[in-house]
Amino acid sequence: MTVRQAIPLSRRRLLQGAAASASVAAFAQALSGCSSDGGIDTGTGGGDGPSLARLGPLQEADENGLMLPEGFTATAIATANRLVPGTNLLWHTDPDGGATYATDDGGWIYVCNREFLPGGVNALRFNAEGEVVDGYNILSGLRSRINCAGGKTPWNTWLSGEEYGLGNLWECDPFGEEGATRLRALGTFKHEAAAVDPATNIVYETEDESDGRFYRFIPDSPNVGGRPDLSSGRLQVMRVLIDVDTLGSPERDVTSKPFAVDWLDVPNPNPVLGGVLVGAPTREQVPESTRFRGGEGIWYHNGQIFFTTKSDRRVWAHDIASESVRVIYDDDWFEDPILDSVDNIVVTPGGDVVVAEDKTGEQDMVAIRPNGELVHMLRLTGHDASELTGPAFSPDGRHFFFNSQRGTSASGPGQGGITYRVSGLWFG
Protein backbone atom coordinates (compact mmCIF):
# COMPACT_ATOMS: atom_id res chain seq x y z
CA MET A 1 0.00 0.00 0.00
CA THR A 2 1.38 3.38 -1.00
CA VAL A 3 1.37 5.95 1.76
CA ARG A 4 0.44 9.40 0.47
CA GLN A 5 1.37 12.61 2.17
CA ALA A 6 -1.59 14.27 3.83
CA ILE A 7 -2.73 17.61 2.42
CA PRO A 8 -1.52 20.34 4.83
CA LEU A 9 -3.89 22.86 6.35
CA SER A 10 -3.17 26.47 5.45
CA ARG A 11 -2.72 29.00 8.27
CA ARG A 12 -6.02 30.62 7.31
CA ARG A 13 -7.80 27.25 7.39
CA LEU A 14 -6.38 26.59 10.86
CA LEU A 15 -7.65 29.97 12.01
CA GLN A 16 -11.05 29.25 10.50
CA GLY A 17 -11.13 25.92 12.28
CA ALA A 18 -10.18 27.62 15.53
CA ALA A 19 -12.95 30.18 15.02
CA ALA A 20 -15.46 27.42 14.45
CA SER A 21 -14.35 25.55 17.57
CA ALA A 22 -14.44 28.72 19.67
CA SER A 23 -17.93 29.56 18.39
CA VAL A 24 -19.30 26.11 19.17
CA ALA A 25 -17.62 26.15 22.60
CA ALA A 26 -19.15 29.53 23.39
CA PHE A 27 -22.53 28.27 22.19
CA ALA A 28 -22.33 25.24 24.48
CA GLN A 29 -21.20 27.35 27.46
CA ALA A 30 -23.83 30.06 26.99
CA LEU A 31 -26.80 27.76 26.58
CA SER A 32 -27.70 25.10 29.12
CA GLY A 33 -29.06 21.77 27.95
CA CYS A 34 -32.71 21.02 28.61
CA SER A 35 -33.74 17.84 30.35
CA SER A 36 -36.83 15.87 29.34
CA ASP A 37 -38.83 13.07 30.72
CA GLY A 38 -41.11 10.48 29.20
CA GLY A 39 -40.69 8.93 25.76
CA ILE A 40 -38.57 6.03 24.57
CA ASP A 41 -34.80 6.07 24.93
CA THR A 42 -33.37 6.28 21.42
CA GLY A 43 -29.80 5.68 22.45
CA THR A 44 -28.56 8.87 20.80
CA GLY A 45 -26.28 9.40 23.77
CA GLY A 46 -27.18 13.07 24.15
CA GLY A 47 -24.16 15.31 24.19
CA ASP A 48 -22.16 17.86 26.12
CA GLY A 49 -23.80 20.85 24.42
CA PRO A 50 -27.25 22.45 24.54
CA SER A 51 -30.47 20.74 23.53
CA LEU A 52 -33.56 22.26 21.98
CA ALA A 53 -35.69 24.34 24.34
CA ARG A 54 -39.30 23.57 25.19
CA LEU A 55 -40.69 25.26 22.11
CA GLY A 56 -44.41 25.15 22.75
CA PRO A 57 -47.24 24.64 20.23
CA LEU A 58 -47.08 25.95 16.67
CA GLN A 59 -48.97 29.16 15.95
CA GLU A 60 -51.04 30.17 12.90
CA ALA A 61 -49.18 30.31 9.59
CA ASP A 62 -47.34 33.56 8.80
CA GLU A 63 -47.03 35.28 5.41
CA ASN A 64 -44.49 32.64 4.35
CA GLY A 65 -46.90 29.80 5.08
CA LEU A 66 -44.79 28.86 8.13
CA MET A 67 -46.28 27.72 11.41
CA LEU A 68 -43.74 28.46 14.16
CA PRO A 69 -43.62 28.33 17.96
CA GLU A 70 -44.55 31.54 19.74
CA GLY A 71 -41.73 34.10 19.76
CA PHE A 72 -40.08 32.91 16.52
CA THR A 73 -39.87 34.86 13.26
CA ALA A 74 -39.07 33.74 9.72
CA THR A 75 -37.38 35.62 6.88
CA ALA A 76 -37.00 34.55 3.25
CA ILE A 77 -33.35 35.35 2.68
CA ALA A 78 -32.99 33.98 -0.88
CA THR A 79 -35.48 33.21 -3.64
CA ALA A 80 -34.77 31.22 -6.80
CA ASN A 81 -33.97 33.21 -9.95
CA ARG A 82 -33.57 36.44 -8.00
CA LEU A 83 -30.50 38.30 -6.77
CA VAL A 84 -29.87 37.71 -3.07
CA PRO A 85 -30.33 41.16 -1.45
CA GLY A 86 -26.97 42.75 -0.68
CA THR A 87 -25.08 40.53 -3.17
CA ASN A 88 -24.57 39.97 -6.89
CA LEU A 89 -25.49 36.28 -6.58
CA LEU A 90 -28.50 34.97 -8.50
CA TRP A 91 -29.96 32.33 -6.16
CA HIS A 92 -30.42 28.87 -7.61
CA THR A 93 -33.58 26.81 -8.00
CA ASP A 94 -34.05 23.51 -6.18
CA PRO A 95 -31.99 24.29 -3.04
CA ASP A 96 -31.16 21.12 -1.14
CA GLY A 97 -28.51 20.07 1.41
CA GLY A 98 -26.81 22.77 3.44
CA ALA A 99 -24.56 23.51 6.43
CA THR A 100 -23.08 26.48 8.30
CA TYR A 101 -19.45 27.44 8.98
CA ALA A 102 -18.18 29.93 11.54
CA THR A 103 -16.09 32.84 10.26
CA ASP A 104 -13.33 34.69 12.07
CA ASP A 105 -15.39 37.89 12.36
CA GLY A 106 -18.16 36.32 14.45
CA GLY A 107 -20.40 35.60 11.47
CA TRP A 108 -20.92 32.46 9.44
CA ILE A 109 -21.43 30.98 5.98
CA TYR A 110 -24.41 28.92 4.82
CA VAL A 111 -23.65 26.63 1.88
CA CYS A 112 -26.44 25.14 -0.23
CA ASN A 113 -26.62 22.56 -3.03
CA ARG A 114 -28.70 22.73 -6.19
CA GLU A 115 -30.50 19.46 -6.94
CA PHE A 116 -30.96 19.97 -10.67
CA LEU A 117 -29.10 19.78 -13.98
CA PRO A 118 -26.92 21.81 -13.95
CA GLY A 119 -26.20 21.42 -10.25
CA GLY A 120 -23.53 23.17 -8.20
CA VAL A 121 -23.19 24.76 -4.76
CA ASN A 122 -23.65 28.38 -3.66
CA ALA A 123 -22.68 30.10 -0.42
CA LEU A 124 -24.07 33.03 1.57
CA ARG A 125 -21.90 34.88 4.06
CA PHE A 126 -23.46 36.54 7.15
CA ASN A 127 -22.00 39.02 9.60
CA ALA A 128 -22.29 38.63 13.38
CA GLU A 129 -25.71 40.35 13.31
CA GLY A 130 -27.07 37.73 10.88
CA GLU A 131 -27.12 40.03 7.84
CA VAL A 132 -26.13 38.76 4.39
CA VAL A 133 -22.91 40.48 3.30
CA ASP A 134 -21.77 38.32 0.38
CA GLY A 135 -22.82 35.51 -1.93
CA TYR A 136 -20.75 33.38 -4.31
CA ASN A 137 -20.44 30.03 -6.04
CA ILE A 138 -18.16 27.28 -4.67
CA LEU A 139 -18.96 24.51 -7.20
CA SER A 140 -20.00 25.25 -10.76
CA GLY A 141 -23.10 23.60 -12.15
CA LEU A 142 -21.14 23.11 -15.37
CA ARG A 143 -18.93 20.62 -13.52
CA SER A 144 -21.54 18.81 -11.43
CA ARG A 145 -25.17 17.77 -11.61
CA ILE A 146 -28.12 16.99 -9.35
CA ASN A 147 -26.29 17.98 -6.17
CA CYS A 148 -28.56 16.66 -3.45
CA ALA A 149 -27.37 16.54 0.15
CA GLY A 150 -23.83 16.41 1.50
CA GLY A 151 -21.87 16.72 4.70
CA LYS A 152 -19.68 19.04 6.76
CA THR A 153 -16.14 17.86 7.47
CA PRO A 154 -14.12 18.42 10.68
CA TRP A 155 -11.54 20.31 8.58
CA ASN A 156 -14.18 22.85 7.46
CA THR A 157 -15.06 21.78 3.92
CA TRP A 158 -18.36 20.74 2.35
CA LEU A 159 -18.93 17.34 0.71
CA SER A 160 -21.59 17.68 -2.00
CA GLY A 161 -23.24 14.52 -3.35
CA GLU A 162 -24.43 14.02 -6.94
CA GLU A 163 -27.68 12.08 -6.85
CA TYR A 164 -27.56 10.04 -10.04
CA GLY A 165 -26.19 6.64 -11.02
CA LEU A 166 -22.78 7.96 -12.13
CA GLY A 167 -22.54 10.50 -9.33
CA ASN A 168 -19.59 11.33 -7.09
CA LEU A 169 -18.88 13.38 -4.00
CA TRP A 170 -17.27 16.78 -4.47
CA GLU A 171 -15.19 18.53 -1.80
CA CYS A 172 -15.90 22.27 -1.75
CA ASP A 173 -14.41 25.21 0.13
CA PRO A 174 -17.18 27.23 1.86
CA PHE A 175 -14.81 30.21 2.08
CA GLY A 176 -14.36 30.32 -1.69
CA GLU A 177 -10.56 30.20 -1.63
CA GLU A 178 -9.93 26.74 -3.09
CA GLY A 179 -11.43 25.08 -6.15
CA ALA A 180 -13.79 22.12 -5.77
CA THR A 181 -12.39 18.59 -6.16
CA ARG A 182 -14.17 15.47 -7.39
CA LEU A 183 -13.63 12.56 -4.94
CA ARG A 184 -13.71 9.51 -7.19
CA ALA A 185 -12.17 7.22 -4.58
CA LEU A 186 -15.31 7.55 -2.45
CA GLY A 187 -17.32 5.67 -5.06
CA THR A 188 -19.54 6.16 -8.08
CA PHE A 189 -23.22 5.77 -7.24
CA LYS A 190 -26.36 7.78 -6.49
CA HIS A 191 -24.92 9.86 -3.66
CA GLU A 192 -27.18 11.46 -1.11
CA ALA A 193 -25.18 12.61 1.92
CA ALA A 194 -21.94 12.09 3.86
CA ALA A 195 -20.64 12.39 7.42
CA VAL A 196 -17.15 12.13 8.93
CA ASP A 197 -16.04 10.48 12.18
CA PRO A 198 -13.47 12.99 13.54
CA ALA A 199 -11.72 10.28 15.56
CA THR A 200 -10.67 8.45 12.38
CA ASN A 201 -11.57 10.73 9.43
CA ILE A 202 -13.55 7.81 7.99
CA VAL A 203 -16.31 9.09 5.69
CA TYR A 204 -19.79 7.49 5.87
CA GLU A 205 -22.10 7.74 2.86
CA THR A 206 -25.77 7.13 2.04
CA GLU A 207 -27.18 6.05 -1.33
CA ASP A 208 -30.62 7.09 -2.54
CA GLU A 209 -31.73 3.84 -4.18
CA SER A 210 -34.53 1.49 -3.15
CA ASP A 211 -31.85 -1.19 -2.79
CA GLY A 212 -29.08 1.20 -1.82
CA ARG A 213 -26.21 0.48 0.52
CA PHE A 214 -24.61 2.18 3.49
CA TYR A 215 -20.94 2.89 2.79
CA ARG A 216 -17.79 3.99 4.53
CA PHE A 217 -14.50 5.19 3.05
CA ILE A 218 -11.26 4.56 4.93
CA PRO A 219 -8.50 6.94 3.73
CA ASP A 220 -5.03 5.50 3.26
CA SER A 221 -3.67 8.67 4.89
CA PRO A 222 -6.30 9.73 7.47
CA ASN A 223 -4.24 12.51 9.14
CA VAL A 224 -6.57 12.51 12.16
CA GLY A 225 -6.90 15.99 13.61
CA GLY A 226 -6.17 17.55 10.23
CA ARG A 227 -7.16 17.19 6.62
CA PRO A 228 -6.92 13.65 5.18
CA ASP A 229 -5.99 12.68 1.66
CA LEU A 230 -9.30 11.48 0.18
CA SER A 231 -7.78 10.47 -3.16
CA SER A 232 -6.87 6.96 -1.99
CA GLY A 233 -8.42 4.42 0.35
CA ARG A 234 -10.92 1.57 0.72
CA LEU A 235 -14.65 1.79 0.04
CA GLN A 236 -16.72 -0.64 2.10
CA VAL A 237 -20.40 -1.56 2.52
CA MET A 238 -22.22 -2.50 5.71
CA ARG A 239 -23.54 -5.99 6.37
CA VAL A 240 -26.00 -6.41 9.22
CA LEU A 241 -25.44 -9.82 10.78
CA ILE A 242 -29.09 -10.89 11.06
CA ASP A 243 -31.83 -12.14 8.80
CA VAL A 244 -32.98 -9.36 6.48
CA ASP A 245 -36.65 -10.04 7.33
CA THR A 246 -35.88 -9.33 10.99
CA LEU A 247 -34.35 -6.00 10.04
CA GLY A 248 -37.49 -5.21 8.05
CA SER A 249 -39.87 -5.90 10.93
CA PRO A 250 -42.07 -2.92 11.91
CA GLU A 251 -42.23 -4.08 15.55
CA ARG A 252 -40.49 -1.73 17.95
CA ASP A 253 -39.23 -4.46 20.27
CA VAL A 254 -37.43 -6.04 17.31
CA THR A 255 -36.10 -3.12 15.29
CA SER A 256 -35.02 -0.91 18.21
CA LYS A 257 -32.49 -3.50 19.38
CA PRO A 258 -28.86 -3.10 18.29
CA PHE A 259 -27.74 -5.50 15.56
CA ALA A 260 -24.09 -6.41 15.01
CA VAL A 261 -22.55 -5.34 11.69
CA ASP A 262 -19.37 -5.83 9.74
CA TRP A 263 -17.87 -4.13 6.69
CA LEU A 264 -17.00 -5.63 3.31
CA ASP A 265 -14.67 -4.20 0.66
CA VAL A 266 -16.21 -3.02 -2.63
CA PRO A 267 -14.13 -4.57 -5.46
CA ASN A 268 -14.63 -1.75 -7.97
CA PRO A 269 -15.83 1.53 -6.43
CA ASN A 270 -15.88 3.24 -9.85
CA PRO A 271 -17.42 0.90 -12.46
CA VAL A 272 -17.31 3.60 -15.12
CA LEU A 273 -15.39 3.92 -18.39
CA GLY A 274 -15.73 6.95 -20.63
CA GLY A 275 -18.79 8.15 -18.74
CA VAL A 276 -20.59 4.81 -19.20
CA LEU A 277 -21.38 2.21 -16.53
CA VAL A 278 -19.38 -0.97 -17.12
CA GLY A 279 -19.93 -4.08 -15.03
CA ALA A 280 -22.05 -4.26 -11.91
CA PRO A 281 -23.18 -1.03 -10.20
CA THR A 282 -21.34 -0.30 -6.95
CA ARG A 283 -24.28 -1.35 -4.75
CA GLU A 284 -24.57 -4.76 -6.46
CA GLN A 285 -20.93 -5.80 -6.20
CA VAL A 286 -21.23 -7.26 -2.70
CA PRO A 287 -24.54 -9.20 -2.74
CA GLU A 288 -24.27 -10.24 0.90
CA SER A 289 -24.26 -6.59 2.04
CA THR A 290 -27.46 -5.17 3.53
CA ARG A 291 -29.98 -3.18 1.49
CA PHE A 292 -31.14 0.12 2.96
CA ARG A 293 -34.29 1.49 1.38
CA GLY A 294 -33.54 4.94 0.05
CA GLY A 295 -30.69 6.40 2.11
CA GLU A 296 -31.07 10.12 2.82
CA GLY A 297 -29.62 12.45 5.47
CA ILE A 298 -26.65 11.56 7.66
CA TRP A 299 -24.82 13.16 10.60
CA TYR A 300 -22.05 12.26 13.05
CA HIS A 301 -22.64 12.88 16.76
CA ASN A 302 -21.03 11.56 19.93
CA GLY A 303 -19.55 8.38 18.47
CA GLN A 304 -22.58 7.53 16.36
CA ILE A 305 -23.60 7.96 12.74
CA PHE A 306 -27.28 8.84 12.33
CA PHE A 307 -28.95 8.36 8.95
CA THR A 308 -32.42 8.11 7.45
CA THR A 309 -34.11 5.83 4.91
CA LYS A 310 -37.13 7.32 3.18
CA SER A 311 -38.92 4.23 1.83
CA ASP A 312 -39.48 2.72 5.29
CA ARG A 313 -39.45 6.14 7.03
CA ARG A 314 -36.78 5.25 9.57
CA VAL A 315 -34.00 6.97 11.45
CA TRP A 316 -30.99 4.75 12.23
CA ALA A 317 -28.01 4.99 14.55
CA HIS A 318 -24.73 3.20 13.83
CA ASP A 319 -22.62 2.91 16.98
CA ILE A 320 -19.06 3.04 15.72
CA ALA A 321 -17.32 1.56 18.77
CA SER A 322 -19.68 -1.41 19.23
CA GLU A 323 -20.02 -2.04 15.48
CA SER A 324 -23.80 -2.15 15.65
CA VAL A 325 -26.85 -0.47 14.12
CA ARG A 326 -30.35 0.11 15.44
CA VAL A 327 -33.56 1.89 14.47
CA ILE A 328 -34.24 4.88 16.73
CA TYR A 329 -37.43 5.97 14.94
CA ASP A 330 -39.98 4.26 12.71
CA ASP A 331 -43.33 5.86 11.93
CA ASP A 332 -44.91 2.37 12.05
CA TRP A 333 -44.40 2.53 15.82
CA PHE A 334 -47.06 5.23 16.10
CA GLU A 335 -50.76 5.30 15.26
CA ASP A 336 -50.75 8.95 14.12
CA PRO A 337 -47.15 10.23 13.97
CA ILE A 338 -46.34 13.89 13.36
CA LEU A 339 -43.21 12.66 11.57
CA ASP A 340 -44.17 10.39 8.68
CA SER A 341 -41.45 11.25 6.15
CA VAL A 342 -37.67 11.47 6.64
CA ASP A 343 -34.98 13.22 4.60
CA ASN A 344 -32.15 15.62 5.54
CA ILE A 345 -31.03 15.68 9.17
CA VAL A 346 -28.87 17.71 11.54
CA VAL A 347 -28.04 16.85 15.16
CA THR A 348 -27.83 19.48 17.89
CA PRO A 349 -24.90 19.55 20.36
CA GLY A 350 -27.27 18.03 22.96
CA GLY A 351 -28.19 15.08 20.73
CA ASP A 352 -31.58 16.11 19.27
CA VAL A 353 -31.91 14.59 15.79
CA VAL A 354 -33.65 17.20 13.62
CA VAL A 355 -35.45 15.60 10.66
CA ALA A 356 -36.80 17.38 7.57
CA GLU A 357 -39.82 15.91 5.79
CA ASP A 358 -40.18 15.30 2.04
CA LYS A 359 -43.83 14.76 1.13
CA THR A 360 -46.77 16.39 -0.61
CA GLY A 361 -48.99 18.70 1.40
CA GLU A 362 -47.88 20.10 4.74
CA GLN A 363 -44.24 19.41 5.62
CA ASP A 364 -42.84 19.34 9.13
CA MET A 365 -39.47 19.82 10.77
CA VAL A 366 -39.37 17.52 13.79
CA ALA A 367 -36.64 16.80 16.34
CA ILE A 368 -36.20 13.45 18.08
CA ARG A 369 -34.83 14.00 21.58
CA PRO A 370 -32.33 11.51 23.03
CA ASN A 371 -35.17 9.94 25.05
CA GLY A 372 -37.39 9.53 21.96
CA GLU A 373 -39.72 12.48 22.61
CA LEU A 374 -40.72 14.35 19.43
CA VAL A 375 -40.39 18.14 19.24
CA HIS A 376 -42.46 19.93 16.59
CA MET A 377 -40.18 22.72 15.35
CA LEU A 378 -42.14 24.12 12.41
CA ARG A 379 -44.64 23.32 9.66
CA LEU A 380 -44.65 24.61 6.07
CA THR A 381 -48.05 25.13 4.44
CA GLY A 382 -49.03 26.20 0.92
CA HIS A 383 -45.90 24.68 -0.63
CA ASP A 384 -47.63 21.45 -1.53
CA ALA A 385 -45.29 20.36 -4.35
CA SER A 386 -42.14 21.16 -2.38
CA GLU A 387 -40.06 19.53 0.36
CA LEU A 388 -37.98 20.68 3.32
CA THR A 389 -34.21 20.55 2.81
CA GLY A 390 -30.92 21.93 4.11
CA PRO A 391 -31.53 22.17 7.89
CA ALA A 392 -28.71 23.94 9.75
CA PHE A 393 -28.27 26.08 12.85
CA SER A 394 -26.07 29.16 12.87
CA PRO A 395 -22.95 28.52 14.98
CA ASP A 396 -24.29 30.75 17.76
CA GLY A 397 -27.60 28.84 17.86
CA ARG A 398 -29.79 31.91 17.26
CA HIS A 399 -30.94 31.06 13.75
CA PHE A 400 -32.17 27.99 11.92
CA PHE A 401 -31.82 27.71 8.13
CA PHE A 402 -33.76 25.49 5.75
CA ASN A 403 -35.16 25.47 2.22
CA SER A 404 -38.51 24.97 0.58
CA GLN A 405 -37.01 23.19 -2.40
CA ARG A 406 -39.61 24.23 -4.98
CA GLY A 407 -41.31 27.01 -3.04
CA THR A 408 -44.90 27.69 -3.96
CA SER A 409 -44.30 26.72 -7.59
CA ALA A 410 -46.48 23.87 -8.83
CA SER A 411 -44.38 23.43 -11.97
CA GLY A 412 -41.96 20.90 -10.48
CA PRO A 413 -38.15 20.88 -10.43
CA GLY A 414 -36.15 23.66 -12.02
CA GLN A 415 -38.72 26.39 -11.35
CA GLY A 416 -38.56 27.64 -7.79
CA GLY A 417 -37.11 27.41 -4.31
CA ILE A 418 -36.85 29.61 -1.22
CA THR A 419 -34.25 29.65 1.56
CA TYR A 420 -35.50 30.70 5.00
CA ARG A 421 -33.98 31.83 8.28
CA VAL A 422 -36.02 31.26 11.45
CA SER A 423 -34.83 33.20 14.48
CA GLY A 424 -35.67 32.76 18.13
CA LEU A 425 -34.72 31.05 21.37
CA TRP A 426 -34.01 27.60 19.93
CA PHE A 427 -31.84 26.65 22.90
CA GLY A 428 -32.51 27.66 26.48
Helix content: under 10%
Oligomer: single chain
What amount of the residues lies in strands?
Answer: 35-45%
Strand order of the largest sheet: 11-12-13-14-15-21-20-19-18
Q: What is the makeup of the main sheet? A: 9 strands, antiparallel
Low-pLDDT stretches: 1-26, 28-41
Q: What is the CA-CA span between the terminal residues?
A: 50 Å
Helices and strands: which structural class? mainly beta
Overall shape: globular
The radius of gyration is: 20 Å
Number of helices: 3
Q: Please give the number of β-strands.
A: 28
Mean pLDDT, rounded to whole units? 90
Question: What would your notes on this structure say?
Answer:
The chain is mainly β and 428 residues long. The chain is 7% helix and 38% strand. The protein has a 9-stranded antiparallel β-sheet, with no helix packed on it. A hairpin with a 2-residue loop joins strand 18 (295-301) and strand 19. The longest helix has 20 residues, at 11-30. Residues 1-26 and 28-41 have low confidence and may be disordered.
Short description:
The chain has 3 helices and 28 strands.
Keywords summarizing the entry:
globular, mainly beta, 428 residues, 7% helix, nine-stranded antiparallel β-sheet, disordered N terminus, single chain, five-stranded antiparallel β-sheet
Helix-strand layout with pairing:
Elements: H1 11-30, E1 66-67, E2 73-79, E3 95-102, E4 108-114, E5 121-126, E6 132-139, E7 147-152, E8 158-162, E9 169-172, E10 181-183, E11 191-197, E12 202-207, E13 214-221, E14 229-240, H2 244-247, H3 252-255, E15 259-265, E16 272-273, E17 276-277, E18 295-301, E19 304-309, E20 314-319, E21 324-330, E22 345-347, E23 353-356, E24 363-368, E25 374-380, E26 388-393, E27 399-404, E28 418-423
Antiparallel strand pairs: 1-25, 2-28, 3-4, 4-5, 5-6, 7-8, 8-9, 9-10, 11-12, 12-13, 13-14, 14-15, 15-21, 16-17, 18-19, 19-20, 20-21, 22-23, 23-24, 24-25, 26-27, 27-28
